[in-house]
Write a structure and sequence with these properties.
The protein is built from 12 helices and 20 strands. It has 456 residues and is an alpha+beta fold. This is Beta-lactamase-related domain-containing protein.
Length: 456
């Protein structure tokens, strides 16, 4: 693997966060823990969380019919919606039991050109156009009778979020899921290498994945499988389109975990619903089963998901039995299957975690809010924001070393600066009054150190 990140929490505290290898091998740019990586299908639990947020607010029900919610999406001209679709519910989509088995290939990849032409829209097809193209197709099985992993089902969930909220999928998730968790660096990625975001890594594929024809409309071009020959990242938005960091992924998971003291983004009963054992014959082993958006183990104590795209791979893992949560992400995909690779890394992680327990135990630290140090630079204290979420005020403690004369800058999730002031010569902390501030996440910067806090 060219480069990657690993982040580990214990009982909601970030105890390890590190980057390895290269963000760009040709330029010899080392990976840092601030680099953005594609997380592929580890995006699905994020979408599932957004759905549960709407359920918790009474704006949606898991047994609502999909065709009723998406009544504004019509079949392609000359086609009629197949009657099978009338049976699909939101719950079916969340559990991969809606009737889609990819019998003619994965629609999210196979129909980027075909659906666009049928809908008379530019290639590659947008998510709604793929749905329009699929509406007249029969299901592969009756909803609720089997489980078959479906990217297309999560495309539908993304459009449901848009239909219910009246907001673009990305904006709703950033505002309602990530901001309350204190996450500001998470985005739907772009496809081409030239479109990479600031701080985003370069993605690599092995020799077993040769270049292919571009899906971007320039069909006479051959490009890398990681950059347009296999998928269009914005079309994968709700099932595989997010880019972020390993640290922010565990920040999301610990904010979802009702046993931690982190800001919680869902009520505990909504989490219970997500990890319930399915009532489907052959799929109801409580030790390993498909929950709503998450894969689950140990009767719902373990939540996990893996992700793979050409050039990217990820794994998220929360174990309620041990209080350990970890995520890893890489800027390449394994030469084995993602299942084999995830299992191999899990075995290695289990051995490492067991060694920690057997020796000195877990460090009594919390690195959330701390910042990585550049090579050759002396260690400096991070910025500690307390209370977090703010309770009418927030105290930023940063120490005096390297702070005197620097600008203290606080910005909202849209990047708008709400506070800018010089740090005094004898100043080690600052109290900000947050009453009247807009709800959401705020980033803090003093020189080259950063942190974040939440206002509710």
């Amino acid at each position: 693997m060219p480069g990657g990140q690993l982040a580990v929490t214990k009982n909601g505290r970030l105890v390890y966060s590190r980057a390895f290898g290269y963000a760009d091998t040709m330029a010899k740019i080392p990976a840092t823990r601030r680099n953005l990586f594609r997380i592929a299908s580890s995006s699905k639990p994020v979408t599932g969380t957004a759905i549960q947020k709407l359920v918790a607010g009474g704006r949606l029900h898991l047994d609502d019919k999909v065709v009723d919610i998406l009544a504004g999406i019509a079949p392609v001209p000359g086609a009629t919606r197949h009657a099978d679709w009338d049976k699909i519910t939101v719950r079916h989509l969340m559990m991969h039991s809606a009737g889609f088995a990819n019998s003619n290939g994965d629609p999210q990849y196979e129909y980027l050109r075909t659906a666009a032409r049928a809908c008379a829209v530019p290639v590659p097809a947008d998510p709604a156009s793929i749905i329009r193209y699929m509406l007249d197709k029969p299901l592969d099985y009756q909803p609720g009778t089997a489980i078959s992993y479906s990217n297309f089902g999560f495309n539908l969930l993304g459009r449901i979020i848009e239909a219910v909220t009246g907001m673009p999928y990305e904006r709703y998730v950033r505002d309602s899921i990530f901001a309350p968790a204190g996450i500001t660096a998470a985005y739907i990625g772009k496809t081409r290498r030239i479109e990479r975001m600031e701080g985003e890594v370069v993605y690599y594929v092995g020799n077993d994945l040769p270049d292919g024809w571009s899906v971007m409309g320039d069909e006479d071009a051959r490009v890398s499988m990681a950059y347009g020959a296999d998928y269009h990242l914005p079309t994968t938005d709700a099932h595989g389109g997010w880019v972020t960091t390993a640290t922010d992924l565990v920040r999301y998971l610990t904010s979802l975990d009702p046993t931690t003291s982190r800001p919680h983004i869902l009520p505990a009963d909504q989490i219970d619903t997500m990890v319930v054992v399915p009532a489907i014959s052959g799929e109801n082993d409580p030790q390993r089963y498909q929950g709503l958006a998450f894969r689950c183990e140990a009767n719902g104590q373990v939540w996990t998901h893996a992700g793979i795209l050409a050039g990217a791979s990820s794994l998220i893992w929360r174990d309620g039995r041990t209080g350990v949560t970890f995520t890893w992400i890489f800027n390449s995909s394994p030469i084995t299957t993602i299942g084999e690779f995830a299992q191999d890394t899990r075995v290695r992680m289990d051995a490492a975690l067991a060694a920690i327990e057997a020796t000195n135990g877990w460090p009594d630290i919390d690195l959330f809010g701390a910042v990585s140090v550049k090579a050759g630079q002396a260690d400096k204290p991070g910025i500690d924001a307390r209370p977090n979420p703010a309770e009418g005020h927030v105290t930023l403690t940063f120490g005096m070393e390297g702070s005197a004369g620097a600008d203290l800058i606080v910005a909202d999730s849209a990047g708008r600066i709400v506070v800018r002031r010089k740090v005094g010569l004898d100043t080690a902390s600052v109290v900000l009054q947050t009453s009247g501030w807009m709800r959401g996440a705020y980033s803090v910067r003093i020189g080259d150190r950063t942190s974040a806090f939440v206002v509710r």
